[in-house]
Amino acid sequence: MSNANVEVVRELYELFPDLTGDPPPRMLELFHPEVRIDQTRNVFNPAVFEGVDGLLNALARVRETWDAFVLEPERYVAAGDNVVVVNTVRARGTGGGVEVIDRSASLHTLLDGRIAFLAVYPDPDEGLRAGGVA
To answer: Among the CATH numbers 3.20.20.70, 3.10.450.50, 3.90.79.10, 3.20.20.105, which is that of 2-130?
Structure first.
């Protein structure tokens, strides 16, 4: 199942690299209807979002804070039902246009071939550990 899970997550990143755009309908199909998104470790807009409406709310908050927020996957690591993506983030703030380049990790837990849980980790090593990767 790990390879299939990686392909689902890879498709997500290919379909929607800049989180400030409008999500394509296919992207929404990759998420479980009861998805839970944990962004409590974020500096900007820390929160937990639930369901597809929560996902759309999370994306709206990204657009409020950033003119551009691009995730560039460096690697995908599978561990059981989890896929951890280590990313380079390239972002530009609204208003002043402050540029940010940083690394992070996103943990995706899949259920029935769809993303049911997503957590963002500013520290890639912490994200890998949370995903069960040594």
So the answer is: 3.10.450.50
Rounded Cα distance, 115 and 35, in Å = 7
Domain residue limits, the chain: 2-130
| Residue 18 to residue 67: CA distance in whole angstroms | 10
- Among the listed residues 82, 83, 35, the one whose alpha carbon sits nearest the alpha carbon of residue 59: 35
Give, in degrees to the nearest 5, the angle at Cα 40 between 68 and 67: 10
Identify the burial level of 112 via C-beta atoms within 10 angstroms of its C-beta, where 0-12 means exposed, 13-18 middle and 19 or more buried: exposed
pTM (predicted TM-score): 0.93
Task: Please report which confidence band the pLDDT of residue 95 belongs to, taking 50, 70 and 90 as the band edges.
Answer: confident
Round to whole Å and give the CA distance between 90 and 49. Answer: 23
